[in-house]
Amino acid sequence: MFDLKSKCALLTIRDLSNFQSYDNLIVKPLGGLGWECEFVPWDSTLVDWDDFDAVIIRSTWDYQQKENLFFKTLQAIEASSATLYNSLDTVKWNINKRYLLELEKENISIIPTRLYDSFDFEIVSQLFSFFNENKLVIKPCVSANADDTYILEHSKMENLRSVLEGTFSRKDFLVQPFIKSIKSEGEYSLIYFGNRLSHVLLKTPKNGDFRVQEEHGGTLKAINKPESSLIDFGNKVMGTIPYQCLYSRVDVVRGSDNYLLMEVELIEPSLYFNMDPKSPQMFSEVFNKWHG
Asked: What is the DSSP code string of 63-101?
């Protein structure tokens, strides 16, 4: 029997009623390893981070709306006696999707991507010809939960002009061809604790949508026997990440002849502990070993 002396803060948001979170599933196994867990809103101003031994970023799913305050909080945690997972340097690298181009230079196949720091309607309209595609995706470089993500069709671009100009005039954004397999097959998520693969799932959008998140009607399916090529691709991506991470989620879609990286989620990804009954214990053991 352990004495519950070590304290761990699980960073969250004040209201999770519009989200699906499964982080409560790690509280019991962490407790069994001597950790007392407390869910703490990340933007709380009344927290003394020195009261905790460790802080794990979890369901902070509105940080993109208050990015500067989010960094201020993480800086305060790193300046305290608590250890932050994943690290502030990891967050700084991963928060802007420009990292995708860095991984492409490491021979990781990504969805073809164009990045911009200012919005020009005519330039974006020309990307249909550039990519030779009928549908494009536009989204902020700093985003979460598919916020401000749009499907563009050339014939309907003019209808979206004011929305696009209002959304992207003051933020970095990226444009990619829409990958058809997202609708026909879905998006794979490979979840790692440390460098060890825990579980794999397939997320599919509801009919008439392209967003795979549960909050947008997407469905989840555990993939108990993933293709070896999918695992190899995920492991290759993990080998290029320039930081050691307690948790990682590699999101992948199938291209015309190979897998393509959609995103690497190292800040606050859902780790879908509900999809693998062994994953809460595995996560807890990896965390306890890392912190020990």
From this structure: GGGGHHHHHHHHHHHHHSSSEEES-HHHHHHHSSTTHHH
For residue 143, what pLDDT band results from cuts at 50, 70 and 90?
confident
Q: Which two tokens stand for residue 179?
A: 């990958």
pTM comes to 0.94
Contact at 8 Å (CB) between 252 and 230?
yes
Inter-residue contact 69 to 43 (CB < 8 Å): yes
Q: Rounded to an integer, what is the distance from CA 15 to the centroid of its chain?
A: 19
Show the beta-strand stretches assigned E in 31-172.
35-41, 54-57, 83-85, 114-116, 135-140, 150-153
SS3 content of the chain, % helix, strand, coil (to 5): 35, 25, 40
The alpha carbon dihedral of 97, 126, 146, 200 has a sign of negative
Cα 22 to its chain centre, rounded Å, is 15
Closest-CA residue to 200 (of 190, 214, 186): 190
Asked if 125 and 166 sit in the same domain, the reply is yes
Tokens of 238: 């993990």
Fill in the amino acid letter for 16.
Answer: L
Is residue 215 a part of any domain in this protein? yes
Same structural domain, 77 and 103: no
Q: How far apart are CA 20 and CA 270, in angstroms?
A: 9
Per-residue pLDDT tens over the stretch 156-208 = 999 999 999 999 988 899 999 999 999 889 999 999 999 999 999 999 887 86
User: How much is the pLDDT for 216?
Assistant: 62
Task: Give the domain range for residue 47.
Answer: 6-85
**Burial of residue 193 (number of CB atoms within 10 Å: 0-12, 13-18, 19+):** buried
